[in-house]
Amino acid sequence: MDADSKPAGQPAPNGFLDKYFGLTANGTDVRTEALAGLTTFLTMAYIIFVNPAILSKAGMDQGAVFVATCLAAAVCSIVMGLYANYPLALAPGMGLNAFFAFTVVLTYKYTWQQALGAVFLSGVLFFILSVTGLREYIINQIPRNLKYAIGAGVGLFLGIIALENAKIIVAHPATLVTLGPLNVAGPLLCLLGFILIVALHARRIHGATLIGILVVGIIGLPLGLSQFHGIVSMPPSLAPTFLQLDFSRTFELGFIIVVFSILMIDVFDNAGTLIAVTEKAGFVDKNGNVPRMKQALISDSFAAMFGASIGTSTTTSYIESAAGVEAGGRTGLTAVFVGILFLLALFFSPLAGLIPAYASAAALLFVACAMASLLANMDWDDVTEAAPAVIAAITMPLTYSIATGIGLGFITYALVKLIAGKYKDVSIAVGALALIFAIKLILVPGG
User: Fold this and answer.
1) Side-chain half-sphere of 279: how many Cα atoms within 13 Å?
2) What are the CA-CA distances from residue 201 to residues 132, 207, 211, 224 (Å)?
3) What is the pTM of this model?
4) H helix intervals, 166-248
């Protein structure tokens, strides 16, 4: 059947692209996929400004991280599109970048090169879990409430980082933290940016987060809070972070815990994103199965390894991909277009200098709110399920450590269940993890 004789309302075939991605079979076309890719890119483009700002706290070269962020997002989104044929875009993950900088490097005192090594090894383990099917077993063994608590706790951790970076909360000798001065521009502009981002999201405006960041960044120009260095230039050098992996502490217990923590967050984050986006696109069958699951997971594990190799924290699937699906994206061509746009973003590095700490903090605060909403999904009726999950969530920001929060959550869960006589709820995997975390906290207290 030629294009002229196709039934009304069906998209016309697009040659090679139609055959490779199955555009017609999925009720889409190149134009729709391109618009969907642009939509997804606009919703997640803030990461090219926020990620370098966070990782620079760990001592990494901000220009190199900017390039690594763009390249990781570009290459890995294209790999996802070509290999798994899903409209899933990837980039360095929020929460994981904070864990990398503030916990692994600044709190645990690993170098950023060693932290990159941990990210790479977590990607290797993710790959092994993906190809062997062990990933599903591990996810199924982890209590549901703890899964939600980990995601929400990461959000709360991002929240306290955002408030601290914007000087909205400051240290206090008696109460640990207190409200900072709100009669100065930085904190006020952070709150303005946050309010703007939330309001624009409520109006369903694509690129709301990016718009909020840029608006308050521009407002800061005449106030001397940000600097304008132009718009377009050649990309900075990637050399300061390229292949800077350090595996010298691989067999230390603390390092193994770091790798495991990165892996766990990535696995749960990826699983939630994959299910949410494929359900929205209508790919999930009546039994809840996701087609081409293995290809998607392998793509995600490749992303972690590739991102670490060029100099960024864990690269993973983005829930913002749902915006592109809502705009009509149904195939991997959407992800390919996202990748192309991230490649073009390499030439807009001067804009990164326009984004001061208070502007990126506004975006972090919004992401924190979105992630904290996972607490609503928890089972609150069983106190032996709810209490350990709450411990996991609130100790992440209060100890300034995602890994510590995860560990205390598992330890509390196992002990509460055993003492309450519900020992059957403690699987071998959960018991083993609780024991490992307990040993780590005993041998390395406070770190």
Assistant:
1) 11
2) 39, 8, 10, 28
3) 0.73
4) 185-202, 208-219
